[in-house]
């Protein structure tokens, strides 16, 4: 199967920056889209940013101009650079990847365990 391991979350003051990383491992043939979602207490999980294998990106309106998603296909890793953080960015951030696996053969949707981002003074 596939494992997604996130890192980089933590506590930061408003206006600060954090960089999240998510590394995929396992029986990977190729990874199609990768993305970051977040879920704040009492709210539904929402898309933050998404990137295709070729590098096309899309962002939630609330993070445009502040967050940047990127990926390293050779390392099966996706990143989220978060700048000018606001208190409303506080949430658990989840990594997502659409992966073609070799065992079993097929395409699946995989999630990381989540990493907490807290923006507070």
Explain what the structure shows.
- There is one protein chain.
- With 121 residues, this protein is mostly beta strands.
- It is built from no helices and 11 strands.
- The chain has strands spanning 2-7, 10-12, 18-26, 28-39, 46-51, 57-59, 67-72, 77-82, 91-102, 105-111, 115-119.
- β5 and β6 (57-59) form a beta hairpin.
- 29% of the residues are buried.
- The model has no long low-confidence stretch (mean pLDDT 96).
Brief summary:
This protein is mainly β and 121 residues long. It has no helices and eleven strands. Strands 2, 4, 5, 6, 9, 10 and 11 form a seven-stranded mixed sheet that branches. It has a four-stranded antiparallel sheet with strand order 1-3-8-7, with no helix packed on it.
Per the principal axes of the C-alpha atoms, what is the gross shape? elongated
What is the percentage of strand-forming residues? over 45%
Structural class: mainly beta
N-to-C span = 40 Å
Topology:
Blueprint: E1 2-7, E2 10-12, E3 18-26, E4 28-39, E5 46-51, E6 57-59, E7 67-72, E8 77-82, E9 91-102, E10 105-111, E11 115-119
Parallel strand pairs: 2-11
Antiparallel strand pairs: 1-3, 3-8, 4-5, 4-9, 5-6, 7-8, 9-10, 9-11
